[in-house]
Amino acid sequence: MPPERGPLSAWLAAMLHGGQAVLPAGSRLSHTGPAPAGPAREDDDLQLALWCCYELHYRGFDDVDEGWEWHPAIVGFRGLLERQWLIELRDMAGGVPGGPAARVPRALAELAGRPGGPDLPGYLMREADRSQFAEFVMHRSVYQLKEADPHSFGIPRLAGPVKAALVEIQADEYGSGRPERMHAELFRATMRWLGLDDEYGHYVSVVPAVTLAVSNLMSLFALNRRWLGALLGHLAALEMTSTGPNRRYSAAARRLGADERARRYFDEHVEADAVHEQIAAHDLCGGYAAQRPGAAADIIFGASCCLMLDDALAAHLLSCWRAGQPSLRLMSAPQPAR
Fold first, then answer.
1. Which residue ranges does the chain devote to CATH 1.20.910.10?
2. Which of 120, 110, 272, 111 lies closest to 183, judged by CA?
3. In CATH, what number does 101-322 get?
4. Whole-structure pTM value
5. Which of 182, 224, 248, 262 sits in a 20 to 30 Å window from 124, CA-based?
6. Cα–Cα distance measured from residue 80 to residue 82, given in angstroms and rounded to the nearest whole number
7. What does the angle CA 194 – CA 198 – CA 201 come to, to the nearest 5 degrees?
8. How high is the pLDDT of residue 296?
9. How far apart are CA 315 and CA 295, in angstroms?
């Protein structure tokens, strides 16, 4: 497990390693504890604890017994963390409109086309040096090395054409049956070009809370069936805002000396997501809203949360780099090969 970052992650680590632990009386999760001092998306302790809880449902940890996955104490603890975070997510998203199913694709397009977000792709394309681009890839690796897995939790919960639409998108993400074409494997090639460690989860210990929050948001929606609509909206937002940024990421990598193999991850998304965005908006989200009256609000909520957290991570990276500082949490973080 990654090193703890506070009382929440320390309690979780102690429990998962077979000990008995009690949350401190001042913990924000006790019934009488104080409210968090800052945003949950910036809370290193809370986001790491959530990430570790969620990871029990993915690949787990070598030093943690598999029997903890559904232990009531851990599931209950995770629920407390999620409820705390959902308060903030709802505030961030504001009043999310519902509306008829037929309007869902247009509403998603309006969200995806919103102006004014931090221009991280433009900075990487024009200004970033190799070290900054490597930091960007380290942040992205937390999710990208398990790309598509959270959204695949939605497959057994869907039926008919909507299920088929999700499977069509996911099949491409997993390389259409060709292991070397899986998007996670293409991303590994980019990491190796930069001299980074491509082991699953390797950089979790050095990324800040907001990076973990981007990954945790998908797991929050994926592992709670109540948030299925939000999970689909989240996927649509990813697909609908992918083509342009990945074209610029590829250009940045080319400027920094990447060969075709090292750029293939970004180039693949330029081509594939141009198709996926239509499937996600119309067949997946529009179809689900038609099947489930009232689901439109959840779909838009998931998409809004996705875009807001992506903007928060981009703002963090740009503010650090423009101040001449590294964007990673630890100054001693592993550095890419030159």
1. 101-322
2. 272
3. 1.20.910.10
4. 0.91
5. 182
6. 5
7. 130
8. 93
9. 31
